[in-house]
Amino acid sequence: HEKKYIMPFVGGATGMFLAGALFAYYFVFPVGFKFLVNFGGEQTTAMISIAEYLGFFLKLMFGFGLSFELPVIAALLAFFRLVDDKQMKASFRYAIVFIFIAAAVLTPPDVMSQLMMAIPMILLYGAGIVIVGMINPAPKEEADAA
């Protein structure tokens, strides 16, 4: 019986991780790499080793893959009745601060890649609110009915 509950989460988590990695590969990596290579201007030439290149690439892929898990984590918390849509809406301002901190930690130190992570995460938080609303909506208060 547990399979029917676990398989959507495993599939969703895998799909969202791949979506985040693909987003990073096609949109963020070219911008971030160009910024880092051209950082010194025309006075310097970038001498990037394979280890540095691979580290930068893997950090971006893993960071974006992890950040795209936000709706899956929200759905899991809603499934266990730990959060509802009203709580997520009330925490939106705090979530934005946390998202920008996470984007600063998970991306290279350029503003463009940080914004390219933070903006999709804010949109994914909004998608998480919708998903949580479908799984565990906030109870209607009796005061609203009266």
In words, what does this structure look like?
The protein is mainly α. Helices cover 77% and strands 0% of the residues. The protein has seven helices and no strands. The longest helix has 35 residues. The chain is elongated. The model has no long low-confidence stretch (mean pLDDT 87).
Quick synopsis:
The chain is mainly alpha-helical.
Cα radius of gyration in angstroms: 19 Å
Overall pLDDT level: 87
Helix content: over 70%
Number of helices: 7
- Tell me, what's the shape? elongated
Q: Stretches where pLDDT falls below 50 for ≥5 residues?
A: none
Biggest sheet details: none
Percent of sequence in beta strands: under 5%
Specify the structural class: mainly alpha
Q: Give the beta-strand count.
A: 0
Helix-strand pattern: HHHHHHH
Distance N terminus to C terminus?
Answer: 41 Å
